[in-house]
Every structure is written in C-alpha cells, then in structure tokens.
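pinging the channel bc i need a second pair of eyes. not urgent but kinda urgent?? the chain im working w is below, pasted from the shared doc
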Amino acid sequence: MKKILGNIALILGTILISFTFILTIIYNTLISTDWYERVYISRIPSALYCIYLIVLLILITNYPILKKINTKIVLSFSLILFILAGLYLVFNADPYLRNADQMWVWNAVKNINNGNYVDFEKGQYLNAHPLQLGLVTFERLIATFSENITFLYFLNLLFNIGSIILLWLISKIVYENTVVQNLTAIISILFTPLLFNTLFVYGNVYGLTFLLGAVYTQLLSLNKKGKKRIIYGICTVTLAGMAYLVKPNFEIGIVAIAIVYFLAIFRKKHYIILALGVLLVIPTVNIALGKIYSYEVNRNISLSRGIPKLTYVVMGLSEDSNGRIGWYTGYNDRAFSDNNYNTDKAEKLAKKDLRE
C-alpha cells in the first residue's frame, strides 16, 4: 500500500511539474517596473529554443565528466562565477528602490529608527500592512550598520550565495548522486532570476535563505539520533520562524515542513513536538511583534488588523483595466480606505464581493 501511494504521489507530482515546465518554456512574462506594474505575456522567441537544446546537449554529453568530477570543485567554480556576476551587478546598478512596498518598508525602517512613528497612524503604511513589521524589524537591524542601498544589494548577494550552498547541501542528503549534486550547483547559477533578485530588496531573498536553511536542518533532524536530532530540530523551528518573520508568504513552506514532520510521526512519535513547534512559530512571531511594537509605539498593535487577507483573494480573482488577472489591482487598498480604514468593514465588503 505504501509503495502504491508513493507511486501515485510521484505521478501527480510529475504531471504538475511537467505542466509548469511546459508553460515556462513556451511563455515569457514581463512586468513593468513603474507604479502600474503592467503585465506583458508573449511567446518565447524561437531562437531561445536553440539555446535550450544546446545547453541540454552540453549537459548530456558531459554526463561522464559530471559523474567523475569532485562536486565541491563544481560548486566552488559555480559560486565564483555567481559572485563575480553578482558583484558587477551590485556595484553598477542604480541604488534604487521602487516606489512601492519595498520603498515604503525602508522608509518606515528609517522613521522608526529615528523615533518617528507616523507609519502607525490611521491610514498610513504600517497601519494598513502590520504584517510587514517582521521585515521592518529585520531591516531596522540592517539599518544600524548602513542605510546605503548598495549595501542592501550586497547583503542580498550574500544571502543568495547562502541559498545556492544550501540547495547543494540539500541535494547531497536527498540524492547520493554526484551528477545530481553537480547539476544542482550548475543550474543554480544558470537560473538568472536568482541573480537579478539581488536588486529586489523586499525580504524575498532573506526569507528564501532562511527557509532553505530550515529544510536542510529538518533533513538532518530526520537522519540524526540523540542530541543532534534535538539540536537540528530546534534549528529548523528557529529558521522557519526567521523565514516567516521577514516574509509571511513563506508560511506555505513552513506548513510543508510541518507536514513532513507529521508524516515522520509514523516512524517516531516524538516528531509531533517538532511538527507543532514549526506551526507555532507563526502565531508566536505575530504575537511577539504585536507586543514589542505596542510597547514601543505606546498604542495597541495587532498583526491581525490592517487590510484583511480576504481582500487579496478577491483581488486575485479580479481583472483590472490593464488586463491583469491574479495580480495587484489596488482592490485591497481601496476596500480598506473606502471603509475608513476599518478592518471589519473591509472584510465584510470583501465577503460580499467574493460571493459575486
């Protein structure tokens, strides 16, 4: 029965990944970097398929070499290339934060560090988006060292390097296969969005590194015994908490980590403690941030207030005048402001619109 269920899961996973892969190699999506964030969808240029084919042939023909070459050498060489490209990008790109969330978060960071709590006032950024307080807290720490945007780019580069190393370490545990480990290192640097995300200062890069760290320590906790299992389990909970702190979107990954621990209960019952520990980081971080900022700002701060999450669901199902579906349309902000920045009223409106 276990083997049948495993095969079913493998087949379903393969179908989903194949579908995503096909869409990726057929369509290209560009998003404008202005306020409107217009979405442009087009077919991949036919010339690019030739490049795909060449890269694939190179990897296939070099399979015997990839099988023999030391995986640490491949990782080191890949990292050198990534670091050189990253440093060029960091020190040549304009020090620029888009006039959107990433800039508003950074402005809030500087305001709070200077003792100015205007962002918590009614209708202001952190009043509407209290879930950003985790990222604000993390970046407040960074700002104590430097407020230079290039420094933020450089920090992102360091975290991206950490992500590549962690992916490689995960591949070493999951696949005891030199070729897979070498391909992981090579494909990581070929995945250029990871490189260009160095210039996107909005918690995504930090969160990804922390989450991959949590996945890595989880794998170690599942494969170790005694005190090491406990230590790695604690590291998993801590890193999962950090991932959620800087980017609440990573709660999806946290739930996945918890599910793995729940499945491990069939092997060892004490994994229930780690499963619950991972899930508890979400309310723990929310409550802790609320208490900390309530004390600092001297007013009641709750991460459950602000713009209701349901408004994002409605927005994701809507299409705006620019033809964007499942993208930012401003519905969430309008629902909140049109109801005098009242969370309960905005949620009531969202429920009504969702039914429609």
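so Strands lie at 27-31, 39-43. and Residues 211 and 253 are 7 Å apart (CA to CA). — does that match what u expected or am i reading it wrong
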